[in-house]
Amino acid sequence: MSRRLVVEADGGSRGNPGPAGYGAVVKDAFTGEVLAEVAEAIGHATNNVAEYRGLIAGLRAAAGIDPTARVEVRMDSKLVVEQMSGRWKIKHPDMIPLALQAREAASGLGSVSYGWVPRDRNAHADRLANEAMDAAARGETWTRRAEPEESEPDPEPAAPAGPAVGATRTPTVTLLLRHGETPLSIEKRFAGASDVPLTDTGVEQARAAAQALKGRGVDAVVTSPLARCQATAAEVAAATGAPVRVEEGFREADFGEWEGLTFAEVRERWPEQMNAWLADPSVAPPGGESFEQVARRVRIALDKLKVRHRHRTVLVVSHVTPIKLLLRDALQAPMSSLYRMHLDTSSLSRIDWYDDGPAVVRSLNDTHHLPPA
Question: Which parts of the sequence are annotated with region: Disordered (predicted)?
Fold first, then answer.
């Protein structure tokens, strides 16, 4: 019996065209074990070129593991999946030689099928591609970690290439709860890595949210490691009886040297850096994280959650930036949408994630459970 492998591939371009890179991971189809990871920065290129390069690298890596294997390719690029499946013609001159290389690589395997997956189910390959581009920006070459991150079997195969499948199955429900009020949130100060506690009002807000969630069928609570979130999560766990797990990926963005300062104070001291940060999600505060960096770890955390708690209702206790990034992903909105959402302390939002269709935002910044200010 031929071995079955899964190749997940992705590529990206910062500017499209711009600095580009790809990533691919090969997994055992039954156990989810990571067998190979490859990534490379490819200089100035388009997103489609980078996607094809990721596919080629992934197929070659799979052939190196077992040339007789039956391989399922999973990508979030509808273009590449449809072209490699033979349903769409390849017209662009830059794509034709790459498609030929991909077919040559596929011919060295037992069989290859192609399926489209939503972006959030391609987080591993996406992370590798961005790691390669980040390394190139530092003048370095990407190198694989000594031990690849643990992987779990995917909840189900990719959707076959073809028309998008409707969202007809039971979703994984994420209830997104921002932590209660803190001393820094009262004064509207940057509070990322700062591990500040809840105020007395914040504790009351957390308890009010916990009471509102008692009848929502919460199966599990996943929380940021920061104290303000863990304290909020503890109130919900006490009210619902749901187990709590800490997830590092849902912590707030690290605002570096801006921690503890107001927007006006930062604008006065770092006017150029502030303007750059507001205009470009790849720009980080001095000594901090960019929104793109936070988005990558949030996607990975979400991917793990959806595997671990598939078709369950999970409360995620987190912060403004991670919650906004989850909402942005669900809406497939640009990064600029982060500046067009408001989340109150102890507010609730809800996203339903379907295996075979789009995510659906059911609510945003719901505060009806809170006492009047």
Answer: 1-20, 134-167
Walk along the chain (373 residues) in steps of 10 and give the mean pLDDT of each run: 87 91 93 92 94 96 92 94 89 89 91 90 94 91 65 48 51 96 94 91 96 92 95 94 93 94 95 92 92 90 87 96 95 90 97 82 96 78
Q: How many CA atoms lie within 13 A of 344 on its CB side?
A: 17
- Alpha carbon dihedral 113, 103, 300, 252, in 10-degree steps, equals -140
Domain-embedded: residue 58: yes
Domain membership of residue 371 (yes or no) is no
User: pTM of the entire structure?
Assistant: 0.59
* Residue positions annotated with a catalytic role: 179, 252
The amino acid at 260: G
Whether residue 165 is contained in a domain is answered as no
Together in a domain, 222 and 336:
yes
Q: Cis ω on the peptide bond leading into residue 17 (within 30° of 0)? A: yes
228 assigned binding-site residue: yes
Could you give the number of structural domains in the chain? Answer: 2
Phi first, then psi: give them for residue 191, nearest 5 degrees: -135, 90
